[in-house]
Amino acid sequence: MRTSLLLLLAACSSDPDKQAPATPDDDGSEVPDDTGPVDDHWVSPDVAERLEDGAVRAGIVADGAALFGGVSAEGREGDVKIYNSKVQFIIQGVRPGDYYEAYGGGVIDADIVRPEGQPGRDLVDELWVMVGLGRVVDPTEVTVLNDGTNGEPAVVRVAGKGAPMTLLTGALETPEFVEDLDVDIVTDYTLRPDSHLLQATTTVTWNDVESSVQLGDVSMVGMEVGATVFAGRGLTGGAGADTGTYVSIAGNNNEVVFGIFSDEAPFTSSAVTTLLEEVGPVMAGFGPSERPTAGTVLTHSRSIGVGPDLATLTDAWHADRGHSTTTVGGTVTAGGSPVAGARVHLRDGDSLETVAFTDEDGAWSAQVEASAPTAIATGRGPANIMDLPSGAGWVAPYAHEVPAATARDSLAAGALAVPFAEGFGVSAPVSATDSTDLTLTAPGTLAVTIADGGPAVVRVDFAAGDPADAGSGLVPGRPSGAAAWGYVRDGALDLPLEPGDYVVTVHRGTRFEPVVAELAVESGVATPLEAALVPAFDHPGMLAADPHSHAAPSGDGQIAMAHRLMVHAANGVQVHFGTDHDHVADYRPMLAPLGLDGVLASVMADEVSPVLRGHTNVYPIDFDASLPNGGAPRWWDGIETTDLWYQTIRARIGDDAILQVNHPDGSSGMMGLASYNPETGVVNTPDKFSDRFDAMEVLNDGEWEDFVPFYLDLTRRGYRVTPNGVSDAHGYRNGVGENMTWVPAGTDDIASFDQDALIDTMKANHTVASRGPLLLVTVDGEWAPGTAQEGAVSLEIDVKAASFVEVDTIELWKDGALDRTLPWTGERLEVPLEDEEDAAWVVIATGSTPMRPVYTSTPWALAAAVLHDVGADGWEAPLPPLTLD
After folding, report:
1. How do residues 588-647 score in pLDDT, each as one tens digit?
2. Which of 258, 308, 328, 400 gives 20 to 30 Å between its CA and that of 41?
C-alpha cells in the first residue's frame, strides 16, 4: 500500500502546469494561491470532509473514512477521490486492482453523497476507457490537476499507454488478439460544484500505423442489485451494446442510478461488448469508428453520472448540452395518500426519455424534450422480498473495512432507508404536464409467521394469472413466473402484494414438509399466515451442502452476498460454498448479523473460470488481502497446459483442499473441452485435460445425463473422484435446495460444524449427489459410498425423503453399465454383490413424479461408488487408465 501512495504522490507533483491549490503561510497554515505552478509544498485536501453546496474537491484518500461502500466498493488508501456535495467518485491509483483488469486509473466506485448513517451504494465493478477493440489504458500517472480549493472545478488526469485488455487476450489465449501499437491515452475527469455529472474527456495520440478504432467506455456493473435502463428502450432486464444517448443502471429498490451520457453523437455499438458479455453484464458507450494515422489526435467526450434517480442525471445532461426542454412533474398517490419511491416513466410515444422517483411527499419532476410526453407510474418492484431491516446495505468482497463494517452492521440494525414502492402496481398512462396526477393502488400485506422461528421460502403465485398488463420496459418481469418470493430468516416476514387472489407455498427445501394455502389479499389489509414446517426425516451425522453457487462477486451473479446466504438458509441448505467466478470472497462475517450462524455455515471458495479450459472450483481457499481478487488464481495472465495450471492452483490452495471439475461437459466443462470420450476412455485434446482433480459435478442445477457417464468411466478406470451435486445458482432460484451434496460429516447440527472434517470426508469420496432424496448406502450398517469393501458384500439401500419427493426406482450400475433396476416401495433393500472379479458399484435413485409444490423436477440421487474388492487383495480397476491421444 505504501508503494501505491508514493507513486501517486510522485504523480501529483510531476505536472509543471498543475495549479497550486494551497501553499503554506509563514505560520504553517495554508492559504489559497492561484498564481503559479505546483511546488513541493502541495498537500492533498482531506477528502473525508463533507462539503457544503458550491464546493468541490479532489485529493488522495488517506484513510477509510473518505471511502464509501456498496456491492462493488473497492477503493483504498492511495486512490483519488473527486467529489462535491452531491456525488463522489473513486479513481483507482497506479496499483493492481480487483475484478478482471488490474490496471489502475479507472473509475472504480461511484455513489451519491449520502446522509450520515446511510450505507454506500456503489455498483460499478469496473469502468474501462477503451481505444479500439480490447485496448485499454495502462496508466503511468494519476494526477490531481486541480483539487477545487481555489473555487474552480476539480480535475483529475489519468495518463498512460494503450495496453491489451488481459481479460480478452487471456480468454482467447491469443496475446496478439490486441495489436501492440504505440498509443498515448490521457483522460481528464472534471467535476463542477453541485453537479451530478463527472465530465470525462479522453485525448488519444496515435503514434503507429493506420487502424480502425472506436473510443468509448466499457463498464461491468452490479446487475445483482440493479437493472439497466437504456435511452429509448427503458428497463432492459439485462446489459449489452446499444445505440442511444445514454446507458444506465438503476438499483432494484431505487438505491442509486449510474449512467454514461453522450456529449456528442449518440453512442454506437461495439463488437467488444458481445465478447465481454460472456463474462458478465456489460454497459458500454462508444463513439463512431475512426481511422487514425501516425500523429493523429482523437478526442472523445462524455459524462459519467450518479444520482438518486435517472431524471436527476438527464436534467443535468440536458442543461449541460443546452437542450430545449419542458418541465413536467406532479404527484403519485394511492388511496389519497402520497406514494414515496414510485417510478414515473416519461415517454415520447413508445420511446423512454427518463425515469423520476417520487420523494416522501409523492412528488416528482423532470426535464423532457418531447412535445407531448406520456407519464406512467409504477410500483411493482422486483418482487424478491428479503427479510432484512429497513435500509440494510450491500456488502462487497473487497470494500475497505470502514464502509464494510457499516454495511455489515446495517444487516442487523438497519439504517436510513431509500424510499421504494413495492406492491403498488402500474398506473394508467396520462399526458405529462407540470401538475400531473398519477394514481396507484395501495398493496395489502401477507404477514407470514414460521412456527419454529427459522428461515423459509414464501412463494406467492397468482391464483388466476397476472391481472396487470404492464408493458415491456416499465417493470421487471414476474420472478420465475410467480407474483412474489419472500425469503424469511428469523421466523416472520411481511410481503407487500397487489390486491388479488393467491396460492402461497411456504417451504424449507427438501428436508421439511411444505405448507400450501389459498388466500385473498385486500388493499391496506394485513392477511396472516402461520406455517409449521415439520422435518420430513432425520439425517443424523449428515449435512446438506451446496458446493457451487454465485452472488455479487461473480460478474454474472444476480443476487447480493447477504441475499445469497438468506436464500440458501431458506431452502434448507446447511453449508454454503462461496464459489464466485475468479474471486475469493468471505461470506462468513455476515452470518452473525443476519442471525444465520446457527443454521448455515459458509466455506471460502473460488470458481476458476478460464474460457477455453473449463471451470474448476477450489475449496477451501484463504483470503489474501495483499493480492487482487483476494488471491484468486488469475487464469487470464496465461495458461500453458491445463495440467500445469492445476499444479499452479494446487500450490495456491495446498494438498488438503479440493479441486472440483464443474459441469464437466459442454462449452465450460474441462472434459468436454478436452474432447474426452467416456465410452472409449480417450482424451483427444490432452493439452486441455488434467487428472489432478479430486471431485466433479455429476448434478448441476438439475442436469445429470451428460455428466454421470464421465464419473462412471473414471471410476471403472481406477480414478478416485468425489461425485457432487450443486445448484450452480446465479440468482434467487436456480436449483438452490433442490440440488445439493449430502456429506457424512459426523453431525447434522451446524452449531458443531467442523470445516476440516467436512472437507476430509468430501475428499475421501463419501458423498451423495441429490436432487431431492437422501440416498443411504451402507454395508453392515456402516457408510459405504467412496469405500472399498472386501469379500462377501451386501449393499443396504435406503431412501429418506419428504412426502412430495417420490422415488420409485433404484438403479445399480456395475463398472459403468446398468446392471439391474429394482422398484422402490419405501422398504429398505439388501442387495448381495455376487462378483467374481473386482467391480465398481454405483447406486442411483430416481422418481418419475415432479416434486411439486416445492420444485418442478423429478427426484434423482447418486451415491459415490462402492469398490468391491472380491479377493481382499487390493481393489483393481476393471479398465486401464485414460488414453491421452
Report:
1. 999 999 999 999 999 999 999 999 999 999 999 999 999 999 999 999 999 999 999 999
2. 400
- The reported pLDDT for the residue numbered 190 is 98
Q: 340-360 pLDDT, tens per residue?
A: 999 999 999 989 999 999 999
pLDDT of residue 468: 75
Is the separation of the CB atoms in 240 and 282 below 8 Å? yes
Name the pLDDT band for 700 (thresholds 50, 70, 90). very high
Instruction: Find where cell 491445463 sits.
Output: 642
d(CA 293, CA 297): 9
With 0-12 / 13-18 / 19 or more C-beta atoms within 10 angstroms meaning exposed / middle / buried, residue 224 is buried
* Sign of the CA dihedral with 447 first, then 450, 454, and 455 last: negative
Burial 523-541 (b: 16+ CB within 10 A, else e): beeebebebebeebeebee
Q: Is 745 helix (H, G, I), strand (E, B) or coil?
A: coil
Assign 763 to helix, strand or coil: helix
Biggest alpha carbon–alpha carbon distance for the chain: 98
**Ordered DSSP codes for 73-127:** ----TTSEEEEESSEEEEE--SS--STT-----SEEEEEEPPPTTPPP-B-EEEE
Rounded mean pLDDT, 810-835: 97
Sequence-ordered list of residues with C-beta below 8 angstroms from that of 654, at least 6 positions apart, any chain: none
Torsion of the alpha carbons at 632, 596, 594 and 755, rounded to the nearest 10: -20
Please answer whether residues 430 and 440 qualify as being in contact, where contact means their C-beta atoms are separated by less than 8 angstroms: no
pLDDT-based confidence at 452, cuts 50/70/90?
A: very high
User: Do residues 51 and 83 make contact, with C-beta atoms less than 8 angstroms apart?
Assistant: yes
d(CA 555, CA 564) in angstroms, rounded, equals 15
- Please state, as a whole number, how many other Cβ atoms lie within 10 Å of the Cβ of residue 682: 14
C-alpha cell at position 137: 489504458
Report the distance separating Cα 813 and Cα 670, nearest Å: 24
pLDDT at residue 168 is higher than 90: no
Distance of CA 822 to the CA centre of its chain: 43
| Residue 756: CA count within 13 A, CB half-sphere | 0
Assigned C-alpha cell, 357: 422517483
